[in-house]
Fold each of these.
Amino acid sequence: MGTRFELVLVSGPADLRTAGEAGVHEIEEWHRRLSRFAPDSLLSHINRTAATSPVRLDGDTFALFADAQRVRRESGGAFDITVAPLMARHGFAPSAVRGEVGTDGSAITLDETTWTIRFTRSGLSLDLGGIGKGHALDRAAAVLRGLGVTSALLHGGTSSVSAIGSSPDGRGWHIRLGSSAAGPVVTLRDQALAVSDAGSQRGEGEPAHLVDPRSARPAPRGRAVAVIGASARLADAWATAVAVLGRVPGNLPSGYRAVHLAGATS
Amino acid sequence: MTTRADRRTFLVQTVGALAGIALVPDLTEPAPRRQGAPRRLALIGAGRQGRAILAELQKLDAVEVAAICDTAPARLETALGRVKGAEGFADHRALLDGRSDIEAVVVATPTHLHRAIVEHALQAGRHVYCEAPIAATVDDCRAIASAAAAARTVCHAGFQGRSNPTYKRAQPLVSAELRTLVSMRAQFHRKTTWRFPAPDPGTEREVNWRLDPAHSIGLAGEIGAQQFDVAHWFRSQYPVRAEGRGAIRLHRDGRDVPDTVELDLTWEDGVVLRYGATLANSYGGQYELFHGVNGAIRLGWTHGWLFKEADAPTQGWEVYATRQQFFGEEGIVLIADATKLAAQGDLKAGIGLPHPPLYYALADFVRSIVEGAHVACSAEDGARATIVGILANQAVIGGRVVEIPTLG
């Protein structure tokens, strides 16, 4: 997923190192499965195959795609995992993306009865960059909880965070948003957080690194938002959607909230 | 290599005296053909490796995983969440007795439990894919090979190198390009405890069987055997002697199984494979390296390179290439479908295998079942390779020389 993951395990089973390795293994496994650039990943297999025949998925991956499609629908298309060719066209992704320049998330069909995915048109290239880190954190957190870990903080690239239990002082995990010391602080307890910043990773004068799938144009700079909720996967996807929309929609999932990095809370 | 593959393999230019040439696998072999309804398989043993197997089987349309068996309820539940509609079993005999529609089983239990399950499955008329190493004792290896010889069904040992397209590309080059083999090296470096979380202290030995001297065949047997078998296959010979040593360099957590091993496997002609494996350091990862008088071949499971000596004859198939920095040398990368990819301005997309190596071993197994194809790695092949691993581990544990009997 092109970033560094860190796991801080505070309390749980006696052998925290072994538990931590299991969490890291889970993240590595999802990296191998969801990488758009590794030819042997499951995602590459889907991108090569799903236009010609349905591809069978495991339950977790099916749920990931189901969530991605749900956020696409509920955000009016502001989040779309078929955005990869557009990202490449605008120079936000390597050019090794096959497929036509354009997005069409409606061309993804998920069959709940068979746990399969297929494309109803050719030329699609899925990119899970806006949801994959959150998914990997959710899965790793589930593994750690299953092993009895009661207090831990996990993050991927500092933009996706998952908190298990509370910090050692019992007051929750305090996370300062943005690079400014005056940035807002949120407190997580058994919650996840994801940040999407249309201006980060790019120099001054350069366009934002987010593309609005609806207009096929870069999203305006300066839109930075954090979404907090139970699932890092959903928070990840909704953070991208809110940054693209430029406003907090009224239909965020129940229990989720958005925080603008400028300080305004919705 | 086939003529077809040779035509697909090109080199533009040699850079420096010793250029790395990526080995171009033949990826034109189609997936096993589905004939009618998918053939039903079961997985026995749903740990980490079992779950990896499920992921690759899902890609093979010719088969469907209809049942999963594991003695641990949590592992079974996790695995059942990976396959829609699969039935769960806690006992492999109940699976074999209760699901006569299941034609084949993939055995991925702890190594020391393979023998009984493989024997039962073969006796029940099922095709069997047995993970490598196939057993933890020499007797069990021979018993599995005997059971397979007596069976009318396929018994495939999971030594993956023999199915890996990159390794299949490299195999004929060892003699054709390297000419006289000088030496071999291989390593497995990964910083990890090799320990798995046990749900409760009572399951510690069961879960961490790799660290239990009563059952473990150590790094040499569990990991090295896969790598040694590449040398067996390439040379069509087995080593005659193992000399080893081992130590615990990092994980002083009460274990007796060494976390670091070094050993030499010597062949009849005196050529030595020097092997190192450690759980204390990750540098260099996993590879096998073959040195010959005309060059060297380095294999890393998904990639392979040929390094030619300056005085080695140039082959006619060396035409198209792109350059790649490789351990300080500027080398030449060869890419499958180079002409087509170059036309698309997309040369680098062809580097690497489109599936993990495990996929190709399972695809070969399925191909043997549905198409009657030759078994890529027979139980006899698997038994020989595993015996080398077991004896190598004995050399490591004893810090001594172990003679390896003639294995064929």
Note: The interface with chain A takes residues 48, 54-55, 58-59, 61, 74, 81-84, 192-193, 195-197, 302, 346, 348-349, 351-356, 359 of chain B (CB under 8 Å).
Amino acid sequence: MEIVSYIFMTIGGLFFLLGGLGVLRMPDTFNRIQAGTKATTLGAFSVLIGVAFANPSWTAKIIIIIVFIIISNPIGSSVIAKATYNSKNIPDNLVQDDFKERGGKHDSV
Amino acid sequence: MIELMDIVVFSLMGVGILFTLVRMIIGPKLSDRVVSLDTFNMIIIGVIAVLASVFESNLYLDIVIIYAILAFLETIVFSRYLEGKKDGNS
């Protein structure tokens, strides 16, 4: 049980490290949003599952935290991306703009 | 009691926190700083969860819940503020 929990925690730590590295090294804002948010969602998930394996009596509380993170983190990522798009901070080398092609307004959230 | 694997996990998270802090300092636009703040908050949630396992105290998980709610609100509020700025500078 101890070993399984440390394996999950190490996987989560690796995902946190890769998320931070992606935020540091990616070239523009939208790539940074993707790298930073997806990797850290899986990292938090994995670390919390590792903590639940180490202490099985905490499982209920940890499930509440995991459900909240799974709901809130993609919403936060989407809101940041929309705000970045609306603040005219679009990178120069953008290949395709699906939002504009579908007739999206700049001000709708 | 802290063990070797705990130190390994804390080191991985610490290097991730350093990367996000560097991006928070050098980030050219405000949205980059908001993204790095979001990543930073998620890594801090992981650190506090591992601290709960190290100290074997149930109370740290309550801190994790409150921190997750505050981090989500922080992201939303900064994004709304960012949306009001039409030039996206600084």
Note: Chain B is about 85% helix and 0% strand.
